[in-house]
Amino acid sequence: MIENIRKQSWFDNEAYPFASQYFHTPIGKMHYIDEGKGEAVVLVHGTPAWSFLYRDFIKHFSKTHRCIALDHIGFGLSEKPENWTYSPQEHAENLEKLIQHLGLKDITLVIHDFGGAIGLGYALKYPANIKKVVLFNTWCWETKSNQEAQKVNKILHSFLGKMLYLNFNFSPKILFRQGFYNKNKLSAKVHQHYVKVFPSKKDRYGLLKIGQSIIGSSDWFEALWQEMDKLADKPFLIIWGMKDEFIKPDFLAKWEACLRNYQTVRLECGHFIQEEMTTEAIQAMQYFVGK
C-alpha cells in the first residue's frame, strides 16, 4: 500500500513532515500536500522526482502562502498503475482536476523538468487563473528535431532501456545523481527517498513511459509553445542551473526570447536546483512570490 511508504525505516518524516492528502482520479489515488494559508503556490515536479523535491520550499512558503505540491500518478506517494499512458498530457489533465477540486485561484505556478509542460498545459488553458510563474530548468516546445531527445527516445524504446528502467531503477538511481553538478550535495539519506519510492518493477512504468514521451508528445509540446503569448506578459522568475547536462543553457535563451516580463537568476548547479542549491533558490523566490 502506498500509505505504508511513510512507515518504512528509510523514510524521514521529519524532513517531510506534511500531512498526506489523496485525490481520487479514474486511474488511481494521487497524493498531494496542502500546507499553509493564503495565496496559492502550486509546485509541479518532473521525473524522477516527486513532492519531496520541494519539501524545504513548502516549509518556508507555507508560513505565508497555501502550498500545494502533488505527486503525479506513478510517482512519489501516488498510486503506480502499470497500464496507463503516463503522457504529460494526461498528467496535465490530472493537475487541472486537482486545482479545480481545491478551488485554487490566482496561482503562483512553480514548474520544473517535465513539470514545465504539465504545469503550462494548465496555465495556457486557464491563463486568467495564473498570477505568476517560477520556472526552473524545463522546456515547452517540439523535441522531435532535437538530436539529444532522439537518442534518449531510441534508448528508452529499446530492450536495454526498458530493462534498465524497469529492472534496475536506472532513472532515480543513476540519472538523478547525474543531474547534480556538485555530487556532494546529494546525500545517501536524501537519495534513497527518490530511489525507494519505486520499490519494484511494477512501480516503475511511470518513469519509463514519461521518458518515452519525450518525442511521443513533441507535437503537444509545440502546440503549447505556439500559445505562449497568452502568458508572455505574466511575471516570470527563471531560476536556471547553468551546469545542467540535461536541459542546457541554450534552452534558457529560448525562454528569455519568448517572455516579456521576466527576471533570471543563474545558479552554478545542475538540473535539480531544489536539492543542490536549496537556500539560494528559496531566497531568489522570496521577494518574487511574496510581493
From TrEMBL:
GO terms for cellular component: membrane. It holds the Pfam family Abhydrolase_1. InterPro entries: AB_hydrolase_1 (IPR000073), AB_hydrolase_fold (IPR029058), AB_hydrolase_sf (IPR050266). Residues 40-276 form the AB hydrolase-1 domain. Gene3D superfamilies: alpha/beta hydrolase. This is Haloalkane dehalogenase.
